[in-house]
Structure formats: structure tokens, C-alpha cells
Input
Amino acid sequence: MQIESPPTDRGSDKPTGERRGLVIVHTGDGKGKSTAAFGLALRAHGRGKAVKIYQFMKVPSARFGEHRVFAELGVPIEGLGDGFSWKSRDLEHSARLAREGWARAEATLRAGDHFLVVLDEIMYPLRYGWLPLESVLQALRERPPHVHVLLTGRNAPQELLDLADTVTEMRLVKHHFNAGVPAQRGIED
Output
């Protein structure tokens, strides 16, 4: 490891632009996209801001760790899907659930009642063609100016990356699954 001196220069001047709702994307093949989104949701909720979370691939009855803690905190989190496609028995049904879920999420975005709306795992239904990308982009452009939106999932389309204000790409360096260690309670769920 290379030892370095801590920075002492504050860097560039403080931004002077207007504060406004941001479009934030967490993408990439590394672990942590949803986890980071939940952390931001907790931060906003901790500041007294209204937060709504939609999970496009989770079932409405899901009770993973995030569902349990958000229920205790009073942060609405809604599963819109029927699980990941490789577990689906009817992909057309999965597509229909995604479209119905998007209608609810879009209405939430446009209503402007929430400071932060999380669209977790939305890249899957976008990639599968279950949701029209232009409809999502249009809703992001037309949402009230104070609404922040965070979208997660692998392989975010370039058009979304171009529209976003902040994009973080999680890069896979090493994953326990590849060493034969299965998913674990409290880590993956």
C-alpha cells in the first residue's frame, strides 16, 4: 500500500447552482446498488423527508430485512413483481406486473408528495422490454422539480445515464458466490 499525505486543500469553490431534485442511478455488475439506495432512503427519512420505495422484482408479500426495518420506521416499500425472471412461471404475467407497477410509481413521481422515490431494480423490466424506456425518461423529465429519484439495477441504458445527474457504477471485484458461498440472511436479504 502506498502511504500518502491527507489533503489540505479544499479544492474547488463551493457550487453556486440551484438545489433541485436529482436523478441518481446505481448500476454495474457489483453488489451494493440496492443497499446504497436504502442507505440514501434512510438518510432522507432521518431528515424528516417523505420517501417511497418501489421494488420492481420483489413480490408484494416480501419480508426481507429492508422491508422489516422500513415498516418499523414507517417508510413505505412496495414490491411490484413476482420475483426474478429465472424463477417466473409466466413471463407475460411478470411483464404485466411491471407495467402496472410502473403506473403506480409514475403517479407517485408526478404527484410530487415525496422528497425521494426509489425505483429499485427497474433496469430489469427496462432491459426485458416490459417497460418503454421513453415513458420512464419522460416521467423523470416531467416530475416536479423538487423530487429526487434513485434508479437501481445492472446495465442501465445509456439514455438514462445521459439524463441522470449522478451515476455510480458498482464494479465486481470479488463475490463470495463465485467461491461457492450461498446467499445469506441479513446480507442478501
User: Anything to note?
Assistant: The mean pLDDT is 93.
